[in-house]
Amino acid sequence: MSTQNLIIYKLIELYHILEELGLDLNFKISFADSQNSLNEKVKDLDNYLIISNNKYSNIRNQFVLDNKPIKIFKLVERINIEFLKIQFNSQSEVKVNNYTIDLNSRELLINNTKLKLTEKEINTITYLSKSSKPVSIDELQEKVWSYQSDIETHTVETHIYRLRKKILKTFNDNEFIISQRNGYQIK
Description:
By secondary structure, the protein is an alpha/beta fold. It has six helices and ten strands; from the N terminus they run βαβαββαββββαααββ.
């Protein structure tokens, strides 16, 4: 897991307190006193939390410290909870080509266009996207649907047909899931 970076924004007293406790905390602590210095600090970070005393609409991963005074152990607990939320949200997005799948809302997104998906559709897309070669119908039946391959069913073909139709209608993309002789593939 990457280092957790805690950036104190415009709260110099809090920075000094947390810096003194730094060895006992599990995050790297830094201070920013302006929007420019804050932008410079976060531009190369992927796992960060910014503590400020005001809500800034242009700042991501922000924790507003508005209930003061607060006990230090309670503050550290809240910081850890915020880092867990950030980690959960970052793990809930899966990139597939130019698309993003939001696993929490079950949506396929590109630019500002969203398509609501079922859980099976998401499982199918994620399974196909992890394979570098075409995936057979039997393999999809077994891995995504938990069917045994000796059962004669057209469930996979029907679901993929409907999924491709939804994607074509919403994104005008006829090449998202490609039919091959030996199965389906996302390139």
